[in-house]
Write a structure and sequence with these properties.
Helices cover 30% and strands 14% of the residues. The chain contains ten helices and eight strands. It is of the alpha/beta class. It is globular. The chain has two domains: 263 residues, no CATH class; 38 residues. The N and C termini lie far apart (70 Å). Bound molecules: iron/sulfur cluster (3 copies). The site of one iron/sulfur cluster has 12 residues, from helix 7. One iron/sulfur cluster binds next to helix 9.
Amino acid sequence: MQSVENRIKEKAAELLTTKKVDLLIGFERGTMPLRASPAFIYDEADIEKLAWNSFCEMNLARYLTRITSKRVGIIAKGCDSRAIAALVVEGQVKREQIMIIGVPCPGMVDRRKIEKEIKGEIDKVEEKKGEIIVKGNNFEKVFKKNNYLYPCCKVCKHGNPSIYDILIGEKVKENSKVDEYAEITEYEKKSPDKRWEFFEKEVSKCIRCYACRQACPMCYCEECFVDSFHPKWVDKSLDFSDIAIWHIMRVYHQTGRCVSCGACERACPMQINLRFLTEKINKDVKVYFNFEAGLDLSVNPPLAAFDIKDREDFIDTC
Ligand code: SF4
Ligand code: SF4
Ligand code: SF4
């Protein structure tokens, strides 16, 4: 049977040569071992660059709001497709402009965990039947892929693309029984003081580089509130109060919009646990509104849906 990577290349060639798309966004091997990079393919001659492996972790939907090509093909795992759907619902991307090549995702591997266990320079990485084989000068080490998944992938219930035009590869078995909010439930059990302590400890490591924002497919504002001078919402200092406002505002802006892809956390150079914030709002939205972003093109996120009969008695009119 042809590999998923070969089938992606074949489909990309067909779409580009028949001019069904002007640009194909996919993945290519990174210049460093254990990494992949986004690939922007305009020409059939570059199709060989395309790759599909356990390091294709970026959420490619991030690029859609910046692209000017008329018709774009995009490789979409479960979380990429959810972000595309959420962007369509928010009117940021036209569904008819995007050809979604869905690829069921069995989970992506956290390279940092593997790197921690390797002493020496990595020359080569291979993947075989659920194993990652890392080779270097005088060593070869085998890692069981499932033991090295990213936290968001370990509890992912939506590895299969939620929307797609073409599907490549067999659908993965989604683990509907996993409790994706188990960590959050533990966090909620803490007293308010302990929760604040945890928040303070995590976010005070922040250097305000905004890599988390840049990696997030749902952060597309032309001017982010943290960059605005008129009006100025928050100072640019590293005082804890300014850092705290940045994190609280960022996460509130994601309410009902975050697709749990983990791109923000992976991008953070300070390795801040950003999931405890995003998953807390995701859990609340699920519990109170029975909603998860990017699963249904016909449903608006709860905070973007208004009805004349909405309750207003909580609004203080004094
Ligand atoms: S969050 Fe789900 S769809 Fe996204 S990379 Fe992880 S397993 Fe795949
Ligand atoms: S906030 Fe983080 S987890 Fe949520 S969509 Fe953005 S990058 Fe993905
Ligand atoms: S990527 Fe990390 S350090 Fe940079 S702004 Fe985001 S949380 Fe702060």
